[in-house]
Each structure stands twice: as structure tokens, then as C-alpha cells.
């Protein structure tokens, strides 16, 4: 079923340019224009735990003179490097890092001074199932990205799917609560058209035979697919697995029944409900071959009126990209093989509409108790987690990335998000069909790193 229910699309990021040292010598004039200043700079240094400074000498031959000056000023020389020539210095007692940088930058023979930042290992969660997630998350540079951002609760990610098990231990603290609704009183307290939607709303009005018709506020997952997708996005990393954006909030919107089927009206209504109730981002791991104007209209309202991006899966037929991923307004996500890196997963929808890909095989997700026995492979000795394949499970990785981006900058527009996600992706081989990977495999670290680029006067700079 991971290959029959689907969704894809996501966006946005920033990248840093790194300059190599061409020679050991540098003039003071060359360095002075780049001299850092401002409170934010030193706040960042303090947050990184800086306790020493780096004094970059203008030449290797000048190191002795700089070292002597440091000693006279009461600085201790911790380390000396010849290429490029520099000293790591500990300031005397009572001298702050900011004062040390500013004072030493004025020393003769010093091109510039800056805090000596502390570095550490990239974040590696202690979640029991992380070992099974580590390979694909490492390929997408998630652990390094988590050192920058893990997600913030104010970012609300709507999961339009089969519902969500809001009692799952890995989703505790991650589920949206409607502040305007009173549970169980049978009344639409906030007047949003959904009764008792304490944790979300259901729009399944004509379920398939054998499936229960849910009440409007009943978002229970009677298949497991939506819960799986939710875990990929935001599992809390405490009891079982870790989501890409473990600190964000999940809004369950049930648009599919117990067979994974639904209608265009249900999906469109679910989209509008989500954005009208505060969703920051939409994940749609589903799709179909039909071009629905109704869905497109809802997508455009979400994007143009509310500034909310929809990320969708390209589909699991191995053929053309499905709708709604096929719409240019949507961030379309295909699947890369997990067993043959750099190649398309055989089931992944492909075409010029694909924006980016994420690995879509061997993905770990959360499921309601016992649901993994229905359509997914249970994780070892565990019936609350499953392992599955599909663009359904590639898309929420991209959604998680976008959620991290929005956690860093809530003002990113859908276009900016898409541009960053694509611009920072790692290109993949052409393969068959050509262009199957769009801009390439997502790179979460690069997408979260500020990118400074020049543009013509009057153009927007990301």
C-alpha cells in the first residue's frame, strides 16, 4: 500500500560560499572589509562556546612578532599554524571574546581576528530505530542539518491522508490541538464547519465498503498510512524513531478511507480546512491521474491567499507524475532507490514536473498498534513502527525539510522555498527517463545554510 497511496513536493534553502586560501600571505587591506561587527556576531560566538580567538597574521614570517605582542598583552598562545599563518589565543582574565577580537584586530601584523568557534559531532539521535534510518538520513545530510534546526512547534504541518493515531508514543507533543473546540460536546464551537475537531477534521463522506464513515472530528487512522507519514515528518525521537523535523506540530486531516481511497472533493476540502485553521505547510502523499480543477483551485487558494506550500508525491505507478504533484504550484517529490543510490526507484513517477527526490525505499515510520501487519513490514520486535517503500514516504522527508526551513524563517514564500530546495539539491545521474530526479536529491544541510547571492537592482535576494 506504500506503493498505492502517494504524495510529493517541497521547497527552499540557502547556501554558503567557501573561499580557499590561495597563498599564505594576506594584506590587512584585503581583510579589513570583511571584519565582523555587531551584537549578533558575538552572540553567535558565545552560543558556540568560544573561549579563545584566532589571530590571522598577514604572513608566515610575521608570526613571531604577533606571538610576542600577544604575550606582552597577557594572551596565552594555545596553538600556532603556519598555513595559513595564525595563532589561537586565550584572552587574559576579565577580557571578553568581543574585546579580544577588537583589540587584537588592531595589532600590527594581524590581518584579522575572530572567535575560535567550537564544533561538535552532528546530532545523532538515541532513538532505538535510528540505526535503520541513519543511512538514508545521512545521504540527505539530516544529522548536520539538525545541528542548525530541529523544528519549532509554531510550524504546523497538515498531513492530508488516512488520519493519524494521535496516541502514538512517538507523536506525543507533536499533535495539533484546536484551541477553539471543546471535545465531545457535539458542537462546532469555533464555527469552522467541523464538529469536535479537537485534533483535526475528517472529510471522508463516502468510504469504501468495509470502511467506517468517520464523524467530522474523528481523525483516527484505520489504515496506518497517515500515521507513518506523520512519523517521517515529526516523530519525537524519544521512544522509537526520529522525524526529520521532530519539533514541529502535526495537524491530522483525514481525506482517505481504510482502503487508502478518497475523492477530489475530500482532498480539496481538506486543503482548505488546513490553511484556514493555521497550517504552515501541507503534505499530500496521495494522488491520481485526473486533472481536477477543484483540487487545483484549492491548491491556488492555499498558495496565493494563505502563502502555504503543498508538497506532494509523484506517485508509484512508475509512469507519469500524478496530480496534484503535477501542478506547477506544488513541490513534486520523486523517489530515489535505497538499494542503488543515484538511481530512480522503479515505482517512482517521473517526468518534467519532478522538482526533487528523496530516498524512498526502506523508510521507517510510525503506525497504529498492529497496523504494520496489514500492509507494511513491521520493524523488528515492534508493532508500532514499520518499514516501507514509496513516493509516499519520500515526500514527507521533503516536507520535514521545508518545516525546518520555515522554523528558521517563517516568512519564506512558496516560490522561495521551492527555489532553495532545488538550488541546494545534490544532482544525480541522468538515468531513465532523463530528468527523473528533477534538481536532484535533497540536501538538508545546504538548504538550511544561508545563501548570499547577487542580483540585479530591485530583484529579490534570498
Description:
26% of the residues lie in helices and 15% in strands. It has 462 residues and is of the alpha/beta class. The chain has two domains: 50-115, 2-Layer Sandwich (Alpha-Beta Plaits), CATH 3.30.70; 130-447, 3-Layer(aba) Sandwich (Rossmann fold), CATH 3.40.50.200. The radius of gyration is 25 Å and the shape is elongated. The model is unreliable at 1-24, 30-35 and 452-462 (pLDDT under 50).
CATH superfamily of the largest domain: Peptidase S8/S53 domain
Determine the oligomeric state from the structure. single chain
Helix-and-strand structural type: alpha/beta
Distance between the termini: 39 Å
Radius of gyration: 25 Å
How many E-type strands? Answer: 14
Low-pLDDT stretches are: 1-24, 30-35, 452-462
Q: From the coordinates shown, what is the CATH architecture of the largest domain? A: 3-Layer(aba) Sandwich
What descriptive keywords fit this protein?
462 residues; 4-stranded antiparallel sheet; 26% helix; disordered C terminus; 15% strand; 2 domains; 7-stranded parallel sheet; Alpha-Beta Plaits; Rossmann fold; alpha/beta
What's the SSE blueprint?
Layout: H1 28-32, H2 39-47, E1 53-57, H3 63-72, E2 76-82, E3 85-90, H4 97-104, E4 110-115, H5 130-139, H6 142-146, E5 156-161, E6 201-202, H7 225-234, E7 249-254, H8 264-276, E8 281-284, H9 293-305, E9 309-313, E10 331-336, E11 356-359, E12 363-366, H10 372-375, E13 377-378, E14 385-388, H11 391-408, H12 414-423, H13 444-447
Parallel strand pairs: 5-7, 5-8, 6-7, 8-9, 9-10, 10-11
Antiparallel strand pairs: 1-3, 1-4, 2-3, 12-14, 13-14
Amino acid at each position: 500500500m506504500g506503493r498505492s497511496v502517494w504524495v510529493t513536493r517541497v521547497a527552499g534553502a540557502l547556501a554558503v560560499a567557501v573561499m580557499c586560501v590561495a597563498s599564505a600571505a594576506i594584506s590587512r587591506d584585503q581583510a579589513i572589509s570583511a571584519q565582523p561587527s555587531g551584537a549578533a556576531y558575538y552572540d553567535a560566538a558565545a552560543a558556540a562556546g568560544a573561549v579563545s580567538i584566532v589571530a590571522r597574521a598577514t604572513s608566515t614570517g610575521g608570526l613571531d612578532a604577533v606571538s610576542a605582542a600577544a604575550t606582552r598583552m597577557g594572551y596565552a598562545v594555545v596553538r600556532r599554524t603556519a598555513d595559513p599563518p595564525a595563532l589561537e589565543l586565550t584572552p587574559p582574565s576579565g577580557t571578553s571574546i568581543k574585546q579580544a577580537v577588537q583589540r587584537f584586530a588592531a595589532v600590527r601584523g594581524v590581518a584579522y581576528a575572530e572567535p575560535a568557534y567550537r564544533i561538535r559531532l552532528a546530532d545523532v539521535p538515541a532513538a532505538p530505530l535510528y540505526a535503520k534510518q541513519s543511512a538514508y538520513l545521512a545521504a540527505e545530510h539530516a544529522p548536520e542539518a539538525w545541528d542548525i534546526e530541529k523544528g519549532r512547534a509554531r510550524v504546523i504541518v497538515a498531513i492530508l491522508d488516512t488520519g493519524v493515531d494521535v496516541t502514538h508514543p512517538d507523536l506525543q507533543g507533536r499533535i495539533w490541538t484546536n484551541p477553539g473546540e471543546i471535545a465531545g460536546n457535539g458542537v462546532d464551537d469555533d464555527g469552522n464547519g467541523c464538529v469536535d475537531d479537537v485534533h483535526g477534521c475528517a472529510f471522508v463522506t463516502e468510504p469504501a465498503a468495509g470502511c467506517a464513515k468517520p464523524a467530522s472530528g474523528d481523525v483516527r487512522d484505520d489504515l496506518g498510512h497517515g500515521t507513518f507519514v506523520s512519523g517521517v515528518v515529526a516523530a519525537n525521537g524519544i521512544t522509537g524513531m526520529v522525524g526529520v523535523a521532530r519539533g514541529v506540530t502535526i495537524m491530522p486531516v483525514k481525506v482517505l478511507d481504510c482502503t487508502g481511497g478518497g475523492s477530489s472533493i475530500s482532498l480539496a476540502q481538506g486543503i482548505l480546512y488546513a490553511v484556514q485553521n493555521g497550517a504552515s505547510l501541507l503534505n499530500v502523499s496521495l494522488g491520481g491521474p485526473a486533472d481536477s480543477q477543484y483540487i487545483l483551485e484549492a491548491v491556488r487558494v492555499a498558495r496565493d491567499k494563505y502563502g502555504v506550500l503543498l508538497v506532494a508525491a509523484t506517485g508509484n505507478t512508475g509512469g507519469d507524475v500524478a496530480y496534484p504533484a503535477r501542478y506547477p504550484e506544488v513541490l513534486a517529490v520523486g523517489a530515489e532507490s535505497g538499494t542503488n543510490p543515484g538511481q530512480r526507484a522503479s515505482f517512482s513517477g517521473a517526468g518534467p514536473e519532478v522538482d526533487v527526490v528523496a530516498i524512498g525505499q526502506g523508510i521507517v515510520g510510525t503506525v497504529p498498534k498492529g497496523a504494520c501487519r496489514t500492509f507494511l513490514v513491521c520493524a523488528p520486535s515492534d508493532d508500532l513502527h514499520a518499514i516501507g517503500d514509496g513516493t509516499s514516504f519520500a515526500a514527507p522527508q521533503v516536507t520535514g525539510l521545508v518545516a525546518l526551513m520555515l522554523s528558521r524563517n517563517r516568512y519564506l514564500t512558496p516560490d522561495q522555498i521551492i527555489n532553495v530546495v532545488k538550488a541546494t539539491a545534490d544532482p544525480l545521474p541522468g538515468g531513465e527517463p532523463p530528468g527523473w530526479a528533477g534538481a536532484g536529491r535533497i540536501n538538508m544541510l545546504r538548504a538550511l545554510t544561508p545563501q548570499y547571492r547577487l542580483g540585479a537592482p530591485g530583484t529579490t535576494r534570498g
